[in-house]
Design a protein that fits this description.
The complex is a heterodimer of chains A (about 300) and B (about 250). Chain A has ten helices and four strands. Chain A is α+β, with helices and mostly antiparallel strands and about 300 residues long. Chain A has a four-stranded antiparallel sheet. In chain A, helix 7 runs parallel beside helix 10. With about 250 residues, chain B is an alpha/beta fold. Chain B is built from eight helices and ten strands. In chain B, strand 9 and strand 10 form a beta hairpin. The longest helix of chain B has 23 residues, at about 115-140. Classes of the chains: A alpha+beta (about 300), B alpha/beta (about 250).
């Protein structure tokens, strides 16, 4: 067991030494992997910002239910009971036509218009707050409320949320595709790097096999090499994304200042960063696995 | 040499390479444990192929190769490394690694088999010492001595000097041909194998170096190692009264 650990340590040290011996090639490899990973990870981070925006906005999606103007008090109460009893409704607020008129009066320029009218043109209304941000729920309730007696019109305030949601779904699909594609690129890069390394160590590998090395023994240093390339590439990718976000945030701060708001791009959480690194290591390992297995298979054949 | 279970046994073994070249045809022989024997024949007669079959580097197309009672054609690929750990191989063309020191070359078989580092280093030094120690019989530079203790010190230092121990940090490139071959031997025996297979170990060496290598094999044989040496050097074979297998176009004479 100790010998085994010792050998793992030795493998790791030798691999690090090997990487350090060709710093230029190593840097380029790490950069290639870093850039390949930074793209999907960066897009993911930016999308995450919009996602939290859409989540915040759709915390309380609302439906405005306008009643017919000839609705009697009892009918209004019946509608209110129906609204409160519907599934997916978290709150119902009644806005009487008089309240609405008072509110409208506060809006500059509207006072003259309203006083020129012979009577209050506004209907009684309910503002219904939904319990979930699911667009399907809003659709269902909109239809349901429309069919209630004495309801003249239902307006969903969540149309833009749905549009954003659809866009985000598109974005997420794009990120998945991009991740898959560039993950493949990472595997290809490590595969080739390891293959080159195998070729330069061909004699050593052959000799080791002849003096009783198991496949596991031969694979081990290359696994370390692939995983380390993935790890360093992942660190490079994180550095690229973090500095990119920092730069964007600086520009965004100016823009946000002009609009009097305080929008900032969110940085990835430590969990997200660890997951990204783990994915990079796993992909590097996979590239090494494929490369060494292929070599051993070929070597076994002849 | 009767009654013992053979350590190597070939029965009707044939080997045909892709392309149709028949390297071995119906070869049968057995080797007793602790035996030393020569395998000879013209170049291309199948000597190397035969050694490769015993080391499971190649697989026979027909017949059975048994090493230590194991039938190699029935061996799972995963078991092959463990078979080879019982074999010491001296390759034609040496296969030394020139990107590491003499010491690390000898260490390799121990590292590969997962020996703890300290134990491995001790055995690597012993093996290096051994290949130097055997040569010492001719060099014998130990003459000066005071007390017993002092003599021991001088002797140790002298042994180191004639052997490769002193050169453990050197790169194999800096070794002479004979020294390189000694290094190969050290690497082959460091794992204390039961069987030593040597393929043309004296090719490209002059007579003095060749004798030196053969003396080492003979010494290993005396401590119980089974030794099989493939060589086309009939003169060398003549110096030892050992069994000789002669191959001719893939057939045993």
């Amino acid at each position: 067991m100790r010998a085994w650990l010792q050998h793992h340590g030795l493998s790791l040290a030798q691999t690090l030494a090997r990487l350090a011996r060709s710093p230029f090639a190593t840097t380029l490899n790490v950069l290639a992997i870093g850039v390949a990973l930074a793209l999907p990870f960066g897009v993911y981070c930016v999308l995450g910002n919009f996602e939290s925006l859409s989540r915040n906005a759709s915390v309380d999606p609302q439906l405005s239910v306008f009643l017919a103007r000839d609705a009697a008090k009892a009918e209004i109460a019946a509608v209110e009971a129906q609204l409160k009893g519907a599934r997916g409704v978290s709150a119902v607020r009644f806005v009487s036509r008089d309240t609405a008129l008072v509110e409208l009066n506060r809006v500059a320029g509207m006072k003259e218009v309203i006083t020129s009218l012979p009577q209050n043109p506004l209907p009684d209304a309910f503002v219904v707050t939904l319990s979930g941000s699911d667009p399907a729920l809003a659709d269902r309730l909109e239809l349901e409320f429309k069919s209630l007696p004495k309801v003249a019109h239902v307006q969903a305030d969540s149309a833009w949320v749905r549009r954003l949601d659809a866009l985000l779904r598109l974005g997420r699909t794009a990120v998945s595709l991009l991740s898959a594609l560039l993950g493949l690129a990472l595997v290809a890069v490590t595969f080739n790097t390891i293959r080159l390394q195998i070729l330069t160590q061909r004699d050593e590998i052959e000799l080791c096999r002849l003096i009783g090395a198991t496949h596991a023994y031969i694979r081990r240093p290359f696994f370390y090499l692939g995983s380390l390339l993935g790890l360093f590439g992942g660190i490079a990718a994180l550095a690229i994304v973090l500095s990119g976000l920092t730069i964007l945030n600086r520009d965004l701060a100016d823009l946000a200042y002009l609009y009097g708001s305080n929008i900032r791009l969110r940085f990835p959480t430590s969990n997200e960063m660890i997951s990204a690194l783990a994915a990079a290591v796993a992909l590097g390992w996979l590239g090494a696995y494929l490369s060494v297995s292929r070599h051993l298979l070929e070597a076994d054949r002849d | 040499m009767t009654g013992g279970v053979p350590i190597i046994s070939l029965r009707q073994v044939s080997k045909r390479y892709p392309g149709g070249f028949e390297a071995l045809r119906l070869v049968s022989f057995t080797v007793e444990p602790g035996e030393m024997l020569f395998l000879t024949g013209h170049s291309g007669a199948g000597k190397t192929t035969l050694l490769k079959l015993i080391a499971a580097i190649e697989r026979a197309n027909g017949g059975a190769v048994l090493v230590n009672g194991q039938n190699l054609s029935a061996l799972r690929p995963a078991a092959i490394p463990y078979l080879r750990r019982n074999l010491g191989l001296v390759f034609q063309g040496q296969k030394l690694l020139f990107d590491r020191s003499v010491f690390d070359n000898v260490m390799l078989p121990l590292v590969v088999t997962g020996q703890p580092y300290r134990e491995a280093a001790r055995r690597a030094r012993a093996a290096l010492d051994k290949v130097g120690l055997l040569q010492r019989e001719k060099a014998n530079p130990v003459t000066l001595s005071g007390g017993e203790q002092q003599r021991l010190c001088v002797a140790r230092a002298a042994l180191d000097k004639v052997g490769l121990l002193q050169r453990e940090k050197a790169n194999p490139v800096t070794l002479s041909g004979g020294e390189q071959q000694r290094l190969c031997v050290a690497r082959a025996v460091v794992n204390r194998p039961a069987i030593l297979l040597a393929d043309e170990p004296t090719a490209s060496l002059d007579v003095a170096y060749a004798d030196e290598i053969m003396e080492m094999f003979s010494a290993f044989n005396q401590v119980g190692v089974t030794v099989l040496v493939a060589t086309h050097d009939r003169q060398l074979i003549g110096k030892y009264r050992k069994r000789v297998l002669t191959l001719d176009h893939g057939k045993l004479q």
